[in-house]
Amino acid sequence: MTEPDLLKILLQDIAEADSATRMVAAVERLAQAQLAAGIPHLITALGYNNPGAAVAAVEGLIAIGRPAVQPLLELLDGYNYGARAWGLRALAGIGDPQALDLLLDAAINDFALSVRRAAARGLGTLHWDELAPESIGSAQAKVATVLLTASQDHEWIVRYAAINGLQELAIASTISHPDLTQQILAHFDLLVDLDDNLAVIARIWLAQKNIQANINEILAQQPILEQQISSLQHTSDTNDWQATLEKLYARKRQQQTYPEGDPHKFREVAAAIFRGE
């Protein structure tokens, strides 16, 4: 069977799908075929009001890879934020730097939190080796600037994605731009005291742990780099997950509110009176 004939059958299946389940199955078959001619139709499926079909389309576009990048950039629906978010997930999964400008803009300027989240995460998964060597440093600096801003977004889920992106950027730049990795680590130390969401705080500590593990692995394999990246050695106890859990519980207790009249509200006052203060 020729590709045009196969595509015709697969598109007919989509057209005739009379339920959400059958639509998902039809889009999955189109995605699994990995036909270049099917790319526009997979992009169209991103806008269906069917998350299962969108997931299948994203997976198909990622599997197709680079040939799907330009169509995604050209055909993303500017009026459907759900489709934009799914499209950015596909671009993030592919990791082609052609999407850099779109991701930079979407991460801080799009009104939809799902789009900002997808863009922030995607900025951390770019394949830097596909850029010209002389362009990598400036591109990573732009990404760092945007992700540092996104890590203070008013929506916690966007901040969470930005932390993930910053982690990947710090790991990617450890050898080539250790000053950038240092900037990210310093920013994490600041954020962990400012953020009020426990999930984000935990993600920051995990990012610190993963970056430190990467630094240790580099030093084990290339000890000659010790002087170059020794300033990145983190002296905190972020690798100690018992300490991490204790910190989380402490923050949770600090955030806990008690009803009026609850004796917990007066614990510190009572303790001070008992001590004679």
Key traits:
2 domains; Serine Threonine Protein Phosphatase 5, Tetratricopeptide repeat; 15 helices; 277 residues; disordered C terminus
Between the first and last Cα atoms, what is the distance in angstroms? 88 Å
Look at the structure and give the CATH class of the largest domain: Mainly Alpha
Return Rg in Å.
Answer: 23 Å
Sheet having the most strands:
none
Treating each run of at least 4 consecutive H or I residues as one helix, how many helices? 15
Number of strands: 0
Q: Portion of residues in helices?
A: over 70%
What global shape is seen?
A: globular
Describe the structure.
With 277 residues, the protein is an all-alpha fold. The chain has 2 domains: 1-90, Leucine-rich Repeat Variant; 95-239, Alpha Horseshoe (Serine Threonine Protein Phosphatase 5, Tetratricopeptide repeat), CATH 1.25.40. Helices cover 70% and strands 0% of the residues. It contains 15 helices and no strands. It has helices at 3-16, 20-33, 39-45, 51-64, 69-75, 81-94, 100-109, 113-123, 133-150, 156-172, 178-194, 198-221, 226-229, 241-255, 267-274. The model is unreliable at 235-239 and 264-277 (pLDDT under 50).
Write the layout of secondary structure elements.
Layout: H1 3-16, H2 20-33, H3 39-45, H4 51-64, H5 69-75, H6 81-94, H7 100-109, H8 113-123, H9 133-150, H10 156-172, H11 178-194, H12 198-221, H13 226-229, H14 241-255, H15 267-274
In brief:
The protein is mostly helical and 277 residues long.
